[in-house]
Amino acid sequence: MNLASDVLAALRTAVMEAHRTRTPLRLCGAGTKDFYGEGREGAPLDLTGYRGVVGYEPSELVLTARCGTPLSEIEALLTAERQFLAFEPPPLGGDPTIGGAIAAGLSGPRRAHAGAARDYVLGAVLLGIDGEVLRFGGQVMKNVAGFDVSRLLCGSLGILGPILEVSLKVMPLPREEQTLRFELSEAEALAAFNRWAGQPLPVSASAWWAGAAYLRLSGTAPALRAARTRLGGENLDPDAAATWWRELRSQRHGMFGAVRNLWRLSVPSASAPLALDGARLIEWGGALRWCATDLPAAEVRNIATAAGGTALHWRGGTAGSRFHPLSAAVLAIHRRLKERFDPHGIFNQGRLVAGL
Amino acid sequence: METRLAAAFQGTAHGAAAEAILRACVHCGFCNATCPTYRLLGDELDGPRGRIYQIKQVLEGAPATPVTQLHLDRCLTCRNCETTCPSGVEYGRLLDIGRAVVDAQVRRPATTRALHFLLREGLSRRRLFGGALRLGRAFRWVLPATLRATLRPARPASAWPRRSHARKVLLLNSCTQGALAPSIDAATARVLDAIGVEALIDPRSGCCGAIRHHLGDPRGALEDARRNIDAWWPRLESDAVEAIVLNASGCAALVRDYGHLLAQDPAYAAKARRVSAAARDLGEFLAPEQAALSRRTRALPAQRVALHKPCTQQHALRCADQTEELLRKLGAELLPVQEAHMCCGSAGTYSLLQGELSRSLRARKLESLRAAKPDLILSANIGCITHLAAASDIPVWHWIEWVDRALAGTTA
Amino acid sequence: MHAASPAASRNASPAAPGAGDADGGGARRLEVARALAELLPSDCLLSREEELRPYECDGLTAYRQQPLLVALPRTEAQVCAVVRTCHALGVPLVARGAGTGLSGGAMPHGAGVLLSLARFDRILHIDPLARTARVQPGVRNLAVSEAAASFGLYYAPDPSSQLACTIGGNVAENSGGVHCLKYGLTVHNVLGVRGCTVAGEIIELGGAALDAPGLDLLAITLGSEGLLLILTEVLLKLIPRPERAQVVMASFDDVGKAGEGVAAIIAAGIIPAGLEMMDRQATAAVEPFVKAGYDLSAAAILLAESDGTADEVAEEVAALESVLRAAGATAISVSHSEAERLRFWSGRKNAFPAAGRLSPDYYCMDGTIPRKALGAVLRAIEAMERKYGLKCLNVFHAGDGNLHPLILFDANKEGEWERAELFGIEILELCVRLGGTITGEHGVGVEKLNPMCVQFSPAERAAFFAVKAAFDPPGLLNPGKAIPTLARCAEYGRQHIRRGELPHPELPRF
């Protein structure tokens, strides 16, 4: 306990000092998402030392941990109680901290069916620019006291300040899981995914790659039995299935191999196949489309916008041009938020939006 | 809700009754969800919760204004809100009190008063109305379009049965139905005859009183009630008839209320209660006779039917399901109707006094009824039937006419 | 405990100049009315006293404030024009849907325009393949599910007032409902919003695509109680109707045991579709109205719903029965038809207004606590009933620890409302002490401003104001709601100290 409070005191001092001297800080976790974001400037502020699970009540479905706690530590604790983080935070080439996972706000294969990272955030503690420790949300799901700042912090990439602690809703592990494989074209897969999503089936993840659609079913034995009978398809061997989803979640799948340009498009799930060349991988029932294309960025963005979505230059873009641009009005709100939470641009300046 | 009656209303019967009802209201707003005028106008002032609040304001001493009067006038008195209300607020009673109080403070413009007078006197007198209707039908081509549709010639009445039976019931000597749609009473009598019940009409009875009651003449309504009670009493007292069967749900609702309306009249209170207890909606009366009717059914007229359940049957009498069930068992294919709880806009004289709202509601109701493409629209109240028929290309009948045809073996 | 005068407690927003009186407010009213009359047809603007009165409160009648004017626009263009004009004139704006809210969130501002979105009642588009519904904010919650039913889909968040409450209001309060335990709150079921900023500009946040660049402004808009945006459209997520749903009703002879039953269900790894509790007084209030067959002798009844395929439900119902039996249930019954299932729920869903049958008025509280503290809270409330001399029925979203104590009182009786209010505040502060929050789903509104001073520190409240200022720099949208000012909290804190109770520094701050 003492150690943690010492670490916190040091962090607070560092932040206050940086604020006083107008020194921009670069918030650091385990570094697994260093590639993700617009730019990384500033003096490093290492948050990994502030770690430890502060509270875990399986029967309350809530876990609270300090930001530097490795994801693996949390997952081990949860697995022992037959629980898990339903949004499946992706460990991208390492063992991320939970603070970094929430600050990045990325979610894994289960996102379309179980919800995103921010849907599981019950509360967060923010280190304010004046060194203040601010607690938002709580440890209960039903909580509308004050604005939902804890959910706002999810995916904020640290630009409003470092997340010190986070309370997350945890879920019971599904009793059983099974993956079905279907030989389908991209268009057929998209149609099928959307059709199935409108039926009461225990789907927890879906993906399409190279002429094959993968559907993960999670639930009780009778539910899976009924779904299998209804859907048909090839029943994947459990190990092969686990490997498939693990590789997808951690992006060790071939799609994410050495390509110069990798785009991540977020579009409405029922959108038709996009007019993009290059290898394509679909996740989230059609709502997430990966594409290794060398088309000019403007063109890819136009295709995404035309489909009603946005495009993120996951790999290959230049600093300040990764994320899809914001509309003027929305950008204005971003600017005002940043001005109030971090008037001198200390926290991860320019990481989420160029210039902010 | 907290209620502080103004001195003028404290200690009065109206005040006490209103206060008790107001205390039950917790202002939850559920009632607005099913109020037709709130759905149309989207204004709190035109929903039951807002009307309750406006009545409360007046009873607490705020001056009633023409604006208040308008919002109360716009109420259809469909009493959908009462069915929806989880707190048991007797909105209908409160509205009657509120209207009386407001009308006492706010004098209507002369033209409106004249119209009210004409309607009260013209509609409630059978012979007068009948004569006017005949004239209107003869000259309908020179009348405005809105009236013309209502003045289409009526369906011919089939022959009145001639047999006598041990079982007898009284029918209402209706003010308007007999002239507007003589086929309804005839069909009623014939269906009753088929199951061995003789239908009697006492010529001394007349309008049930609803017209005067809802047009701000409660005294006149009580006179109508007394007159009917006097006419019916001998047969009722001697058990010569087993029920007073009403085939217009609007009338049935009012006759059911005679007991409450005349509760303060020592000469009539007990009789009125007895009359109310003997009053039956036609569907209620025939429901137990369904097997007998089924046996006598020869052929079904138009089968695909959309049933419009009148507000009075749904919310005042709360017996609409019985008619529906009866028709289904007799073989009618009742098509689904969305928004079945919404008023058709007839609401007694509402269609004449609040024309625009009434027509909007009618259009909405016809859309719901027509959606599944029925061959026929059936209902249980003369007001609804006349109102809907005026704008519907699909024929609109009283459901008893359908049953009558089924027994006679004639198709539509 | 709460030393503010009764009059102040009823009129919680700062008195606006000339609000409500015929002459003083008259000039301003005339000025704003003239400006708005150029933008709106005459049936879209109300200015007479008798027209404004029925709009002076929402579902919480203890807090009333007559607005300057009421505007009832019909189109988005009209909304923007009204907002722009009010912005230019510095007129506060309070948005209102069905006015069924229970925290005074739609109580007007005395110097402001009440902007009713009740006429925005169209369902614009349902896309069954994409499983979305684009609706106007005045669409009733239940209407969405009714419209989606023919596609085998429905909208999951189902607050008890769903018959009447609007989607716009649901977004403002991040409403939950019986089924939010399994299917989430409004925040989990809204994909995007479209609305008007205080400057009259239309922005869209979120959308049919799952990710959006930048900060998650959609998330912060949800539950923002009308302080950040005026909505004109909402994009909702629809989910497939389960094949079957069944309700298990369990009686307990002790409320503590019932609370433990709830914890046992979650501990067994079951997430029921709904898990609710009603105490004896609540059951007695609703049973005569709904005739659901509630066990009137039970100290508490639990309603647990299971949904899914027929096999799944059969298995889960069996599991629920066994867990509840082990937890000490004295009787268990299971619904055997859809009609029966709905009847079992009807009492719970009508509990609040049905309380109106027992008492002329009720004060509905809304707090959340960790599930394990349910028993402790209920026992504490029993003691408070004696302390304040008022009865309290209790209904809970037991599955997520969100409680709704209904304090019965008679506003016509001297002092009862004041006692009810104090009773309520004591419950809320207890919730915070036990590790919960002062509001689970009804919002802070005007009603819980003081307890916000207990739940949050000055710096945290300053952060809330920072968010507010980012969206609404002039502070015109629903001012005086949701976030208490420093001054207010200072005054409230002084009252605590005057009574000899110092604010506890060791209180967990959430």
Assembly type of the shown chains? Answer: heterotrimer
Tell me the CATH architecture of the largest domain in chain B.
3-Layer(aba) Sandwich
How many structural domains of chain C? Answer: 4
What does the largest sheet of chain C look like? 8 strands, antiparallel
Number of strands of chain B: 8
Biggest sheet of chain B, open or closed, and with what strands and sense?
4 strands, parallel
Ends apart, CA distance between termini of chain B: 54 Å
Distance, first to last CA of chain C: 22 Å
What topology emerges from the helices and strands here?
The complex is a heterotrimer of chains A (356), B (412) and C (510).
Chain A: H1 2-21, E1 25-28, E2 43-46, E3 53-57, E4 62-66, H2 71-80, E5 83-84, H3 98-104, H4 111-114, E6 121-127, E7 133-137, H5 149-153, E8 163-169, E9 171-172, E10 176-183, H6 186-197, E11 203-209, E12 212-219, H7 221-231, E13 234-235, H8 238-249, E14 262-266, E15 279-283, E16 288-292, H9 297-306, E17 310-315, H10 328-341
Parallel strand pairs in A: 1-2
Antiparallel strand pairs in A: 3-4, 4-8, 5-9, 6-7, 6-8, 10-12, 10-13, 11-12, 11-15, 14-16, 14-17, 15-16
Chain B: H1 13-24, H2 30-33, H3 36-41, H4 48-59, H5 66-73, H6 80-84, H7 91-105, H8 110-124, H9 126-138, H10 145-150, E1 167-171, H11 177-180, H12 182-194, E2 197-201, H13 210-214, H14 218-237, E3 243-246, H15 249-256, H16 258-261, H17 269-278, E4 279-281, H18 282-286, H19 290-296, E5 304-307, H20 311-316, H21 320-329, E6 333-334, H22 350-353, H23 355-370, E7 376-379, H24 382-389, E8 396-398, H25 399-408
Parallel strand pairs in B: 1-2, 1-3, 3-4, 5-6, 5-7, 7-8
Helix pairs in contact in B: 1-7, 4-7, 5-7, 12-25, 14-17
Chain C: H1 6-10, H2 26-37, E1 45-46, H3 49-52, E2 69-71, H4 76-89, E3 93-96, E4 113-116, E5 123-127, E6 132-135, H5 141-148, E7 153-154, H6 167-173, H7 180-183, E8 190-196, E9 202-206, H8 217-221, E10 230-237, E11 239-240, E12 244-252, H9 255-267, E13 274-279, H10 280-290, E14 300-308, H11 310-326, E15 331-334, H12 338-349, H13 351-354, E16 361-364, E17 367-368, H14 374-388, E18 392-397, E19 402-409, H15 416-433, H16 449-455, H17 458-471, H18 486-498
Parallel strand pairs in C: 2-4, 3-4
Antiparallel strand pairs in C: 1-2, 5-6, 6-10, 7-11, 8-9, 8-10, 12-14, 12-15, 13-14, 13-18, 16-19, 17-19, 18-19
